[in-house]
Amino acid sequence: MGKLAQAVTFILLLGYPLAVYLGLNYLPGNLLAPLLALLLLMRLVTQKQPLRLLALPVLFGLLLALGSFVARQQHWLLYYPIVMNLCMLGLFGSSLLKGPSMVERLAKITEPQLPDAARPYLRKVTGLWCLLFVINGSMATYTALYTSLATWTLYNGLIAYLLIGLLAGSEWLYRHFWLTRS
């Protein structure tokens, strides 16, 4: 049951931008914030890992949702993608300082026998992810502050996911091609 709850809350949180768009347009009053807070709390509780940087975006999202409800500031809900990108930037960036790089850690899950020659490449890819999080975070900030809710939803609920998928997929394909040649 725990893995199912984890999967469900993860999938629902992927739809956060769409939920915000629909909630702000169609739900009465300040009902969206407590619903999102409940979802984020469920994600925090079902997360199996200790409260580390990976759990921080969920915790900050919970605080934003609760703060939005208490202060009756629904636009605070638009800041969650900013928090996500900042936390991911912190996670990937700190791995460049401490090592091994985040992409190396992730690659070793499926390829435990990575050659040492791959490390510099994987560090560069981790840096590329950091750049993507800076760009996505900047766009999330811009759309939250200066655009319509529809534009915010389009960028944060579709374009940002496409960029992440494009980087992840193309890097994975290239790494497999590159590693087979070295």
Record the SSE blueprint.
Elements: H1 2-14, H2 16-26, H3 32-46, H4 56-71, H5 80-98, H6 102-110, H7 118-146, H8 149-181
Could you explain how this protein is built, in words?
By secondary structure, the chain is an all-alpha fold. The chain has eight helices and no strands. It has helices at 2-14, 16-26, 32-46, 56-71, 80-98, 102-110, 118-146, 149-181. α1 crosses α3, α4 packs antiparallel against α5 and α7 (118-146) runs antiparallel to α8 (149-181). The longest helix is centred in the last third of the chain and has 33 residues, at 149-181. The radius of gyration is 18 Å and the shape is elongated. The mean pLDDT is 87.
What would a concise description of this structure say?
The protein is mainly α. Helices cover 80% and strands 0% of the residues.
- Rounded to the nearest angstrom, the distance between the terminal CA atoms is 43 Å
Number of helical regions: 8
In total, how many beta strands?
Answer: 0
**Main pleated-sheet profile:** none
* Content-based structural category: mainly alpha
How much strand content do the residues show? under 5%
For the CA atoms, what is the radius of gyration? 18 Å
Helix content: over 70%
Contiguous runs where pLDDT drops below 50 for at least 5 residues: none
Arithmetic mean of pLDDT: 87
Globally, the shape reads elongated
